[in-house]
Amino acid sequence: MDKYIKIFLCLTIGSLMLAGSVKAEPTEEAGLSRDEAIKIISNSDVVKQKLGDLFSFTTGYDLSKINRAKLTPIISYIRVVPKRVPPDGRTILELQAQVEDPSGPKNIAGVKADLSSIGRLASTVLVDNGMFGDKSAGDKIYSTQTSVSPKINLGKKEITVSAANKRGWLALAKTQLDVDKTPLILEATANPARLAVKSKTKVELVVRVDNPGRNQDMAFIYLDMSSLGISSKLALKYVPGSGEVESDLWMGEFVLPENVGPGEYWLPLEIVNQSGGSAFGKIELAVY
């Protein structure tokens, strides 16, 4: 019970000071440490009343009654890139958290992430020094790079990020990522999709894929052309994006054989990525 009382005392100091319930000597603008907070309010007659207002053994904390604006760090957001990652121990996963502190960035003692859900350290350090995967030093965005262990099962995984300042106050935030290895077919089309008999028209095949990890990490993307009398499979090629934008585009082309008669034709599509995940689809082609 003493443990919980101390926790409540720490969290209530902001609201007590603002309400004038506790008289204390002026402190430096940066705010109180947890130890200072406990020392100041531990003898106050209003502590029991405040604890009753803040905590219920039925509902827990009423956070709306706690003023922590000048005490705790602030985690504005957490970002994982990519959101879908294969458990191959190879695909790079970037984790970023924007962290600020009421007393300024120098008051941040450390930012850590619990990566045990993906088979990595439960206390992984995030940095804002422009190294080890961090893009820019001092921009308040703390980063690390990791991967998902091959021993991890597929499914959604939770990652917790904690930020502590030098006065002992702690902030927590969570995000999720999806451990998966199945590629998703976003688009599979022929251009043109309708063409005349014996036209010798060049047909462009377009496939867009959302692949866990990097979109270019494919073993192959094949189209079965046998319905058109073409014995060999057509391998589509990856089309890179421009700049930092990753492309999801794969393309190929062929010329309609002269002996193909009128009708509707289906070209089976098979996709296999480097993690062993696969997907199947088809492209429709009409000849008139």
Describe the overall structure.
The chain is mainly beta and 288 residues long. It has 3 domains: 2-65, no CATH class; 74-179, Sandwich (Immunoglobulin-like), CATH 2.60.40; 184-287, Sandwich (Immunoglobulin-like). It has helices at residues 2-19, 34-41, 47-54; strands at residues 55-56, 60-61, 74-81, 84-85, 93-100, 108-114, 124-126, 141-146, 155-165, 170-179, 184-191, 194-195, 202-210, 218-223, 234-235, 237-239, 249-255, 263-273, 278-287. It has a 5-stranded mixed β-sheet, with no helix packed on it. It has a 5-stranded mixed β-sheet with strand order 12-19-18-14-15, with no helix packed on it. β9 (155-165) and β10 form a beta hairpin. The longest helix is centred in the N-terminal third of the chain and has 18 residues, at 2-19. The N and C termini lie far apart (82 Å).
Major sheet, described briefly?
Answer: 5 strands, mixed
**What is the total number of structural domains?**
3
Number of strands: 19
Derived structural class = mainly beta
**Backbone shape:** elongated
Radius of gyration: 29 Å
Q: Averaging pLDDT over every residue, what do you get?
A: 83
Q: What amount of the residues lies in strands?
A: 35-45%
Strand order, sheet with most strands: 4-10-9-6-7
- Assign the CATH architecture of the largest domain: Sandwich
